[in-house]
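Researcher: Let's run the pair from yesterday's discussion. Sequence first, then tokens, for each.
Model: Starting with the first of the pair.
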Amino acid sequence: MYGIIEPGDGSNTLSKIYDYIMIVTIIVSVIPLFFKHESTFFRASDKVTVSIFIIDYLLRLITADYKYSRKKVFSFIRYPFSFMAIIDLIAILPSVSIVNNSLKLFKMLRMARAMRVLRIFKTFRYSKNIAIIVKVFNSSKEALSAVCMLAALYIVVSALIVFNVEPNSFNNFFEAIYWATVSLTTVGYGDIYPVSTAGRIVTMISSVFGIAIVALPAGIITAGYMNEINNKE
């Protein structure tokens, strides 16, 4: 059972069929999110797909001792707290009627429906291309963490500067953080912007340095991806 539900090297035909079935199920489960209104067909398809997700979750739970072979007894406690198991559980809960009835406040905010988007992350387990990207992120996590820290620090510093240079353009510090993030990524929505000369100078400097900071992760990921491809070949 574990050999079928766990993605392998492609030599197991039943495992490949199971992977394809799960990918199709994931795709079908997120189709209703492309529409504002739910129909009878969408509700029926959601029940079917969620049932498959529940079966998949239970199968992975009862075979957890094969996944963590060194600690067989502890495996059944450890697995529910793993990243992919949490994603599986989040993909199931929004469609469970008991949970839906207790989340009326969240349904007002469309949170219960939006949580279904996380089902897409279930494809990480079945796609080899995504598996390569995950390996790239794992191998480059130190460099990416350093860049993220640099970007976060730059956003805070830019927000502090512009918030004090031009306080009339921002109602609170969060708006300054929002402006700094938009400027860092050079998106420029134009809903919040400085009007003074000093504020505009800060904006120009922030945008120029933002291009360099945003370009760093792309270079790191590209280099890691090429290394992973070369190692695989």
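Model: Moving on to the second of the pair.
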Amino acid sequence: MPASSATSVPVFKLYGETQHWPTPDLLHCESIAERSQLHDWHIRPHRHADLVHILFIAQGSVELALEGTNHQLQSASAIVVPAMAIHGFIFSPDVQGHIITLAKPLADHLHALLGENSTLKKADFYPLSQTNRAERIATLVTQIDQEYRQPAPGRHSLLEALIQALVVELSRLGAHTGSAAKRYGPRQRDKGRQHLEQYQALIEAHYREQPSIEQLAEQIGVSSAHLNLLCRQLTGRSALQLLHERLLLEAKRQLTYTNMTIGQVSDSLGFSEPAYFTRFFKRNTKFSPREFRSRQNNSIASSKEVPDQAN
């Protein structure tokens, strides 16, 4: 696909959504049916600027479009879709399985832990019917789904451990079975994508300092106007919006998973005063930090009162 047409591919947070990442977690887990049935089982080609998908298909079939190639998967399989990879699916209505979406900070953390053995930066798929890892992968996905839906003490740590185990299993699978990406070849990254990756890495390293876009653009070696245009073309958001989204995600995480005061959260994220942080947070979520924390605590408390229906 020519580079000019690639920029016209829709960019979503989760498919069909253009709003902020919907959870304070660095991952999102749902059954494939939950979203795809809303779209008549057809997820049209699109991409994500800062998300990585791991799909586990336990039953049913899927017609997979992945970086310009089409594949018909008829049995149990796993699919990895890295950030910026163009992908689409047509699922059979009897499909059973899950899609786990990783926010870029978590995906980058896992990639750094596993190094070049990580599967998270390669668009790929793995048939599972002929391997002895299918049951282990299915178990890990089920555990991730259950832990994600039932908040409990230590949830964040356990989710990270489970997703790390899953990525290790997928990496071993890729080494054992051979890579579809090797057969079809990765699309060569152009300068624009390289600059975006540099900018995302700088955001992750410095977002707590709230640097100016001009400062970050200078480190990349482009003008702030060019960086802003590039971000809008490839992600659908401005350079400042990408920085603010990372700040907002971390604010949600700290309000949900720590006992830090509002002032402490504000200071840790580089705001000059709590009132400014509160205005920023409310403008982006429609809730004050205190209201958001109260809603999260109530949600966790109510989930503990509901017996686990799986047992």
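Researcher: Give me one sentence on the second I can quote.
Model: Residues 191-299 form a domain with the Arc Repressor Mutant, subunit A fold (CATH 1.10.10.60).
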